[in-house]
Amino acid sequence: MADAFSLREVLAAFQTCVTERREVLLGPYLSGWRGLIRFLHSLGAIFSFISKDAVAKVQIMESYCDGEQRDKYVSLQSMVEYELANGLVGVQKRSGGPDSGCRTVLRLHRALRWLQLFLEGLRTGREDSRTSVICTDSYNASLATYHPWVVRKAATVAFCALPPRNAFLEIMNVGTPEEAVAMLGEALPYICDVYGITQELFAQHKLLDLP
Ligand code: 1PW
Fold first, then answer.
1. What is the interface pTM, i.e. ipTM, of the complex?
2. For labelling alongside 202, which of 23, 85, 100, 153 has CA 20 to 30 A away?
């Protein structure tokens, strides 16, 4: 079944991102994102403006990973080192040039924080808690800071269309709501790990505010 889709596999991609040397591999990072985007699509057309930007960011990264310098884009660490050493990262303002891998990953990285908070909220929420509230709260606590008012507004409207918690846990296709909650408990530490390593790497190189 080519179409069988389970959030378990998506989250497992983030598990395979981190190497023994604590490097974050771009291949599995991007396949995790591709899965998340498919998941967003399954939530309906109202989420397409959210997924559209994520799709664009993933495409930029894919072209680096398949491009001439692909050996520099194996891990986030090698990417940061290469782009910084070659003056490819615009630190002042967005130049007319191509978006760097660093600024592009930074957007995905910030969105990953949102995902992490949201899934954690779902996991620990009460059965009758509202998914839209969990989603809005986690968005406001993370990604919203970086978005202009109109994006925040549109996102908040889209969140209202989210199904109730148990229905949401079921579209994750992991099994019963209880099984989905258990899977989240297993998978979330890996997402936290990827987020933490990336955050540290970007902080170390002062890349957390890239325009
Ligand atoms: C159910 C939860 C799923 C979480 C998936 C997260 C997807 C995140 C995509 C959010 C995109 C919102 C609209 C786009 C905003 C862009 O302006 C912004 N991009 C992001 C990812 O925040 C900034 O990109 P830019 O304009 O600096 O290239």
1. 0.94
2. 153
